[in-house]
Amino acid sequence: MTPFRSLSRAMLLGFLRDRSSLFFTILFPLMFLVLFGAIFTNQGLAKAKIIQVGPVAILDQAPGLGEILEITKQNDLAAAQEQVRQGDFVAVVRQQGDRYQLFYTAADQVRAGTVRGVFGQLVGQANAAGVPQRFTLAAEQVEDKSLKAIQYITPGLLSWAISMGATFGAAMTLVTWRQKKILRRLRLAPVSTATVVSARVGASVGIALVQTAIFLGVASLPMFGLQLSDYWWMCVPVVVAGTLVFMAIGMVAGGLAKTSEAAAGIANLIVLPMAFLSGTFFPLDSAPGWLQSLSNIFPMKHLNEGMLDVMVRGQGPASILPELGIILGFGLVIGLIAVFLFRWDDV
Amino acid sequence: MGQTIIVQDLQKRYGDVHAVDGVSFSVEEGEFFGILGPNGAGKTTTLEIIEGLRQADAGTVEVLGMSPWPRNPRLLPRIGVQLQASSFFERLTAREQIRTFASLYGIPAKKADDMLTVVGMADKAGTPAEKLSGGQAQRLSIACALVHDPEVLFLDEPSASLDPQARRNLWDLLRSINDAGRTVVLTTHYLDEAESLCDRVAIMDHGKILELGPPATLVRGLDSATHISLATGTLSLPAAREVAGPDASVTDDGVTVTIATRAPAPVLTELADRNLLTGIQVRGATLEDVFLHLTGREYRA
Predict the structure, then answer these.
(1) Residue ending a domain, choose from A99, A127, A145
(2) In A4, A57, A309, B279, which residue has its Cα 20 to 30 A from A120's Cα atom?
(3) Residue A227 included in any domain
(4) Which domain holds residue A234?
(5) Paired residues of A92 in beta bridges
(6) Does A198 lie in the same domain as A262?
């Protein structure tokens, strides 16, 4: 066996025989998937119920709205408003000449927001087209707003799981190998540092791809109902790039820490807040603008976006290139910091 | 025979501590060489500089005619290093450990398995490294250091924390490795280990070599007393003083009567005449006495 293969094998065996690392890398994120999948199943599926008072041209002429809106027709505006107030409906809409009026509830902000968004688009597009008869609804936009929970949760949780796996894998290997003097032993063997590092990269990428396969497999079960888009396989380069970035983050944590406990703490301190702020657990759509801008400085945000783009938003293979570039850019910068912090020895 | 290792005027400082302060020695091909001293004497630092793990502040090192610093990939396959802590990959069995190390040197798995047999670990091949006893772990780590058949073997305190039986077994193993023609350099803080194994010993303290030579020569050069001990009661104290003569000292701690003399022959003859040789113990000077003589303080590992 070549040094590269035997070292990767040693790392993989060490990983597979450690129940707790197996649990935290594979099962723990999967538990979140099952949990979130169950909690958000209904919410995501439910259509927004609205009342239409009188004829409303943009509704009558837009096909496909039935996917997201359940429209009931009534004649009395005041009675309809009262029904919205009581929570039976999300909104009332009517048309007065060129003016569309939307009365919505403050009680169900998520769905009211969806309805507002939909109408904003409808009106905007009707104006842009100028000719009501040629009005069409862009399926892509609606798809985005009506994303089922599982469609959003799977790429997000998968991004988080991969980040955790890569960060902890790299940090733990670095610290325990330094503590146990394996790094010194390797330094005294005729293998290059590049071989040692690439063996760890190989092991981590392998683990990440297995995580991806298990995640997509479970999420695609009928009870969760994940629908992958045509180019979902383009998530492979995204997964690989994400693994590289978070391995670099793990190397930084391992470079700073003296013990494996400290390394785990530092890794958690970096990855967990980043997961929340990058929208891997919950969408950031309703977060304040400054937070949405801030999230761009986190590599996990871009990993998450890249995954969403190719796995569920149905974007073509070329569309992820910018995100891929950003992720690899992060990897390069953090990797340089990791090289700077790297130590062969404790002393 | 050529010189395998040549060390000249080695210096290494850590802040204010002069860890290695002008160390010079050379090791012959096939020699069993020991660096002896208490903890903090600078043994390990000296060894690490020779192995190429650390850079010396000053001085030169040559191993097999090459400089070990900076990291020298042509030298590495020719030296074997067993580190102070047992450096094993986590959760791998003994066989997987040694095969992994073997692959780093391009050695086939078959040869790695043979090496396990050489160190008497064949029956533990399937045991995870974490579950090995101290002696077994030490044997495995020596096997891992030997798997690529190096010309020089470095051992850093190989018998630390082993029980007496495991130590003796390890010594036998180390002797056989040296008998096979390899140069062996070891550090130890056990005087008896250095005495029993090494062809030559360098005694180090505070970063300097105090004395260097074959253990027997060092001890003989001491001109120290021979201790003759008998069980208390076999010989009364006055009788013992009479046997010992005027230049010797006699002590009785309630268990043993000890006669310390520089002229043991007449004393032993006298004891033989009195038929008192049964259970008698005669102990010459040891490296312990050499250390005491050199530093003026008791040897404490």
Answers:
(1) A145
(2) A309
(3) yes
(4) 3-41+147-341
(5) A51, A103
(6) yes
Whether A268 maps to a domain, the answer reads: yes
A347: in domain: no
Tell me which DSSP letter residue B66 carries.
Answer: B
Q: Are residues A237 and A325 in the same domain?
A: yes
Say how far apart CA B187 and CA B202 lie, in whole Å: 9
A343 interfacial to chain B (CB closer than 8 Å): no
Q: Among residues 123-152 of chain B, which lie with CB inside 8 Å of chain A? A: 144
Query: Do residue B105 and residue A2 have CB atoms under 8 angstroms apart?
Result: no
Q: Are residues A27 and A70 in the same domain?
A: no
CB contact under 8 A, A188 and B53: yes
CA A120/CA A126 separation, integer angstroms: 10
**A125 and A183 in a common domain:** no
Alpha carbon distance A280, B28 (integer Å): 64
Tell me the nearest-neighbour CA distance from A39 into chain B, angstroms: 38
Spell out the residues 6+ positions from residue A3 whose beta carbon is closer than 8 angstroms to its own: A189, A191, A195, A199, B103, B104
| pLDDT tens-digit series, residues A54-73 | 887 777 766 667 767 788 88
- Give yes or no for B92 touching A (CB within 8 A): yes
Give the pLDDT confidence of A15-52 residue by residue, as tens digits.
Answer: 999 888 888 888 888 888 888 877 775 554 457 788 88
Least reliable range by pLDDT among A206-215, A216-225, A271-280 = A216-225
A194 touching chain B per CB within 8 A? no
Can you give the C-alpha Rg of chain A in angstroms?
25
Comparing CB atoms, the residue among B76, B85, B109 nearest residue A189 is B76
The pLDDT-based confidence of A121 (bands split at 50, 70, 90) is confident
Nearest chain A Cα to B90, which residue? A14
Q: Determine the residue of chain B that is closest to A192 in CA distance.
A: B73
Residue of A nearest to B97 (CA): A10
Same domain, residue pair A240 and A197: yes
Counting the structural domains of chain A, the total is: 2
- Assess whether A114 and A201 both reside in one domain: no
Q: How confident is the model at residue A303 (pLDDT cuts 50, 70, 90)?
A: very high
Does the distance separating the beta carbons of B104 and A189 come in below 8 Å?
yes
Distance from CA of A277 to the nearest CA of B (A): 35
Please give the Cα distance from B180 to B183 (Å, whole number).
Answer: 9
A83, A206: one domain: no
- Cα→Cα distances B275→A268, B24, B268, B272, B284, Å: 78, 51, 10, 5, 22
Q: Does B95 have pLDDT greater than 90?
A: yes
Which CATH number goes with the domain that contains A59?
Answer: 3.40.190
Q: Is A188's CB within 8 Å of B89's CB?
A: no
- Are B89 and A10 inside 8 Å of each other by CB? yes
Residue A186 lies in a domain: yes
**Pick from A89, A119, A145: which residue ends a domain?**
A145
Q: What CA–CA distances, in Å, run from A74 to A50, A68, A254?
A: 10, 19, 65
Q: Smallest Cβ distance to B73: which of A7, A11, A190?
A: A190
Q: CA of B75 to nearest chain A CA: how many angstroms apart?
A: 9
Q: Please give the ipTM for the structure prediction.
A: 0.80
**In which band, very low, low, confident or very high, does the pLDDT at B29 lie, cut at 50, 70 and 90?**
very high
